[in-house]
Amino acid sequence: MAEALQQVILDTLDAESSIKDTRALVIPGEKQPAISNDAQIAILGALNSLSSRDMISYATHEVISHAPTPEGSQIVEQGSNEARVWAALPLKGQGDPVTPNQLKKVVGDEVAKVGQGRAFKNGWIAKEGDGLVKLAPEIKDVTRDDLLEIKSSGTLKSGEKTLSDLRKRKLIVQKKGQWFSVTKGPSFSTSIAKPETDLTVEMLASGSWKTSTFKKYNFEAEGIPTNGGALHPLLKVREEIRNIFLEMGFAEMPTQSFVESGFWCFDALFVPQQHPARDLQDTFYLSDPAISLPPKKDYYDLVSKVHEHGGFGSTGYRAPWVEEESRKLLLRTHTTASSAHMLYKLAAACRGEKAPSDKGEYTHGAASTTGSYRGDPAKDDGFRPAKLFSIDRVFRNETMDATHLAEFHQVEGVVADRNLTLADLIGFMRVFFDKMGIEQVRFKPAYNPYTEPSLEIFAFHPMLNRWVEVGNSGMFRPEMLEPMGFPKDVRVHGWGLSLERPTMIRYGINNIRTLVGHKVSIEGIENSPAVRF
Ligand SMILES: N[C@@H](Cc1ccccc1)C(=O)O
Description:
Blueprint: H1 2-16, E1 18-19, H2 37-52, E2 56-68, H3 70-78, H4 81-87, H5 100-107, H6 109-121, E3 125-128, E4 131-134, H7 142-153, H8 160-168, E5 172-184, H9 201-206, H10 233-247, E6 251-252, E7 259-261, H11 262-265, H12 297-308, H13 323-327, E8 329-331, H14 336-346, E9 386-395, E10 407-418, H15 422-435, E11 441-448, E12 451-461, E13 466-476, H16 478-484, E14 490-498, H17 500-507, H18 522-527
Parallel strand pairs: 6-9
Antiparallel strand pairs: 1-5, 2-5, 3-4, 7-8, 9-10, 10-14, 11-12, 12-13, 13-14
Helix pairs in contact: 1-2, 3-7, 4-6, 5-6, 12-16
Bound molecules: phenylalanine.
Phenylalanine binds near residues 336, 412, 448, 494 and 496.
């Protein structure tokens, strides 16, 4: 077929010296000229093959053509709705009128509904008693005739108005099409000699290579795409942020426990037991098992006491403490739950327990939990400064929309040292965000139950030309740190941001579902460029 088509093109060129419009060609095996898009695509294949051998050259022309929709095609086959209604009725005076219900049974609900209106309007049918009869003994089904003409020619001679009418009725669609004009090329001939693809020993020996034609190299051909794994954009951005933390001397905290207790997610952080964040509407609670093992008693007692009655210079919340609330298992709502675990470990030596060794404690990097004390050894209270970070998943019972999911990733940095100030926190964040390529940041006072003071972080978004919130931060409260055993002069500050927000900004994505979930395009993931901050 492909060769027969090439032959038709060559023969036509030979007879007429050029082909002005390939839509006039008749493809072998067809009766009609090659008007349809599919036919022109087949012709294009033949033209490419011939032009690669310089036998012809061609130019491409674009046209807008029309084709029936599935509904339109049905009308081509069965007639328009109004014609089908008309056909189902007896001629006035020649039989019993058909009731609307009978009509529905014959032609179907949809056809009866749509067709009646038009048939009335055309004056084809009329009411008689409770039923319907046809007035006209003959009709001309214009819609069907028009669709037939469009199907075979791609357009209508009667013009644009009817075309746009049919488009509005969703009976036809517009399609972009192509056709071609063809002229002879430098190697034109009416016989298709199959070009040689290889130079063989035999050709050299017989000398036939001198007269053979060889297939040209196709330098435009693309190689076969290679299959391979690809990192998700979130993982690429995570790696970049991880590198920023590591080069700033932070160690990565282990964060594999998605399930936490109310105690570690909230109580240890001095989040009141009545806080709305702990509500069912905001937090996913586990049903099986629903209750965690108890935390260490001495620490638990200190935490419950500071909540209910105060201590460490605080008046506490003065609200009843409910152990059950503390023991509930839940999906962690923030990675600060992991930070609380790590800070409690960091304070071990201050409590007179054995300090954890750096070995195996961190996923990446090392923190100075076990370094020696640089001051007067007699005053060593066991505290060692630490810079810690984590990037992992958290869960919130959110209504999902274009920018919110029930699970996302948090990036969190925590710094513990003696006598840190708010200026140190701001300084750290400025360096951190600067390394992420966010040069302009602003801070706004905010409220967190576990930090005082707290700051929201805003970054200037040059594309959106406005300030957007990028994170939250603060200095952890003594009500949280002192029950853990930290000396009074130790300050711990932290900041958190989502991983999704910078990733979406970086990749110019404005719907989170493009990035996460079942609507993600694998191809989009594979083709997403690398990120360098
Ligand atoms: N946990 C906070 C972020 C944060 C971390 C550390 C200190 C202060 C705030 C959040 O979920 O938004």
